[in-house]
Amino acid sequence: MTKKKDIFEVFFRCKPANILIALRKGGKNRYGSVLAKEVDCTYSHAVKILQEMEKSKLVNFEKHGRIKTIKLTDNGNKIAESSEKIRDLL
């Protein structure tokens, strides 16, 4: 599996691709702190990546009182699905 992971990182930046895949696998709105732990990065780095994804309309932030959750857009879901397929092929 290590070799597959290495080649995937050649084609994709690992953390952003894994955040999209984790959001897709979760199937529901997710918290930034949980995503950061899942992809093994700091919360601040995950938030920075997620903000860029929001600018590109790949994710939406939804505020519920003081809690902010992250949800994939339709386009974000398509890209996450494609990234996951490519990762699995490698």
Can you describe what's shown?
This protein has one domain: Orthogonal Bundle (Arc Repressor Mutant, subunit A). The mean pLDDT is 87. A three-stranded antiparallel β-sheet has the order 1-3-2. It is globular, with a radius of gyration of 13 Å. With 90 residues, the chain is of the alpha+beta class. Helix content is 66%, strand content 16%.
Topology:
Elements: H1 2-11, H2 14-26, E1 30-31, H3 32-38, H4 43-55, E2 59-64, E3 67-72, H5 74-89
Antiparallel strand pairs: 1-3, 2-3
Total of DSSP H or I helical runs spanning 4+ residues: 5
The secondary-structure class comes to alpha+beta
H and E order: HHEHHEEH
CATH topology: Arc Repressor Mutant, subunit A
Large-scale geometry = globular
Identify the strand order in the major beta sheet: 1-3-2
Q: Would you count the extended β strands for me?
A: 3
Major pleated sheet? 3 strands, antiparallel
User: What count of structural domains?
Assistant: 1
